[in-house]
Specification:
The longest helix is centred in the C-terminal third of the chain and has 40 residues. The protein is mostly helical. The two termini are about 30 Å apart.
Amino acid sequence: MDERIYLGQQKIWSEMGRGMYYLAVGSLLVKCLAFHMGLGQCSAEYLVIIGAPVYFQIRSRQLKMSFLPAKGKRNRQVWLIRLGLLTAIAAYWTLNKSQDWKSAAVYLVSFLAAYQVTRTLLALSEKKRAKRLEEEFDSDE
């Protein structure tokens, strides 16, 4: 098989996997927000949402690859997505009035803080790992 064809197939599979991941996120949001289902009723989506990033990290370490966090345009897109999700959640809580807005705000702020700390620690870990792998591969040559 030609290398271009192989790389094309890999790109298609990658895009399909990413699409299925986003469909699982959308399905979970619709089931929880619109149909008021619990996580027990959304177990397949929950497993995909949690399992895909875990598999990605495990597999990248097995293949001795390091993926540094994106900077620039991609980072702005991630922050816009986060802001959009927070706006949607805040609008849902405001319209539904099922929770006190103060408790909702504390929950959202604590979630964002935990998310950002985890992301920062992962970025530092990946930078160290990338440097170590680069030194390892340079010494092999």
